[in-house]
Amino acid sequence: xxxxxxxxxxxxxxxxxxxxxxxxxxxxxxxxxxxxxxxxxxxxxxxxxxxxxxxxxxxxxxxxxxxxxxxxxxxxxxxxxxxxxxxxxxxxxxxxxxxxxxxxxxxxxxxxxxxxxxxxxxxxxxxxxxxxxxxxxxxxxxxxxxxxxxxxxxxxxxxxxxxxxxxxxxxxxxxxxxxxxxxxxxxxxxxxxxxxxxxxxxxxxxxxxxxxxxxxxxxxxxxxxxxxxxxxxxxxxxxxxxxxxxxxxxxxxxxxxxxxxxxxxxxxxxxxxxxxxxxxxxxxxxxxxxxxxxxxxxxxxxxxxxxxxxxxxxxxxxxxxxxxxxxxxxxxxx
Length: 334
Prior knowledge:
This protein is an alpha/beta fold.
């Protein structure tokens, strides 16, 4: 090698070494930056076209302009249980498509187990929830009392369906849940105070890295309830109460992320299998964070894109299920 060529190689190598740390700091997996604390809030059964500024003023006039708003977001399937599982595992079963409850439990890898392996914390917060690591998501059981572990009561609480989370030593049990599940799958409050426990943790900044927030069967928009008698407004009111508290929390900071989405559209019968990854229909998904450039994002995206983005942001290697078949959410990151 000539002296001039050797000098050129050395100069290029030095430039690469100088640029590489900055690139790694500002970029990340697929360009997704490293996430601090993430809050995933899930509503129920709402078509994209059914939301307007009259029934959902906070969502449509406050959150939409300040968020990355995905115009063409599609849920995974029908019914609810399968969609919650798909968001955590990248797959679902026929049993879960029929809201089969704990009969559908699986020995399948999932985002909670991956977070454990990465030494990152997680919690599922159930508004006015029942006992720890129990059913009751979307149901109406008394706080701190066991709910039926079947059907509708389990649809919005995926960790209790995963053997490597719910069961001691990875063996699923209806009567002996693991210490991890008891510690991390918890009520967000009581029947009287709703989200008070979660809100207190927000105020102190004492929250997990990944927080899944599950409203009640009224607040999630599943059914019309008093006093609003408008299921779209009910979820909107829930967002108007909780999102500002999350944004003010010391845990949110410069790398906090809020994801708001609906589990599926309103067609309870489902859509044809030929819809592929979009069998759950067209519904709303948005992302709020100091890390994102707000705006309307038109690219088609899926529930699995949310999962892939979470894996990227938490640096969880090995995409789960159909998360390997899609791109992350089409966001311009700051």
